[in-house]
Amino acid sequence: MEVSPKDAADLANGVYSVNQGDPVGLKIFLSSPVFSQEANPKLLKASVGGRVFRTAKDGFGISNLGGAQYKGHAFLVFRGTTEANNKADFITDARIGITISKAGLPVHVGFNHTFNSMLPEIRNFLAEADITGPVHCIGHSLGGAVASLAADWVSRNTSYPVRLYTFGAPRVGTDWFVNRTTVSIGRENMYRIYHKTDPVPMVALYPFMQAPYGSSGFYIHSPEPLISGAAHSMSKYVESVKNKAWNQVGDIPDQPYDVEAAVEGWLKSKSLVDSSSPAFWRWVDAALIYVVKKVLMGAVLALQGAFIGVLTVADKFAIILERGLHLAESISLWVELLIRKLLQALGMKVEASKEAITRSLIRQVLVRLIEKANREARNALRNL
Question: Where in the chain does DSSP place strands (E)?
């Protein structure tokens, strides 16, 4: 049995009270009929920020048993980014390097650090609680990223069925993580909800990907401009799913971003591209995957381990794409088209000759692209 869209959204919204010094708000949150009023909920404290710079340990989530129709179920609910801890959460979000999760899979450094700091408490709760139903992992934004890691861990280390619900969550891991966690939890048990113009689900850029594998999740049209970040507000998500069943949540994406012919058409198109459009970022991600696969002759899975090391993602993609320029015309053409498209979108000079597209230029383009995507996401988080 899954949690209803309304209940999942209300929990993802209400859990922000755990670190805002709001005892009344926390009491209201815990009095939700979703929770058992006889159980003893546990406040989950997490380490956020850097290892040295702007570190903090504060309330990050709740572990609790379900009540009413969720009797016997367990809940792990995590809050998103706040400024209530000297903006340490922003450091967590910005730690975009790749590390290895408890399951041996490549994931986001910052999210993994925060999850691991709560793991002893989560493990104790699951061992001691009287659970007869699913474990529901829920979160918005940063909380959705941590909920994804929690759901993956629970599915691998306990016998309980798992349900995962995320709202406007960023990308947690690479292809390996997304593929394996989808198999472990089950695509049908993963509810990823995101607004079209919410910039946070668009970061970090490839090789990070969204779960479940092979699914666009619950995509919801939103009228707010991408640059405003307004579509990331949890209150907007509460409104979007209100009075709806799961089969009523979600719209059809505007474009076939996963169809190779469509990606080729976008790369070849002479029309101007707008980096303030959410469609641009979806096309960029699809094009990066398409071109890198071309260069590596389909060996993308073998590539993932190469991203763990001292070089940045931009460095390694620059090496890969620069090499692609010197391969057969059927491959180098796509690298050239991609770089020209990105130069145009970023307002940089579009080089006339292929020879002018050097590794240094490619790296500069990728660095600017990543910085722009992260600025959009940070702006959304600051506007919460």
Answer: 42-48, 56-65, 74-78, 98-100, 106-108, 135-140, 162-167, 190-195, 218-220
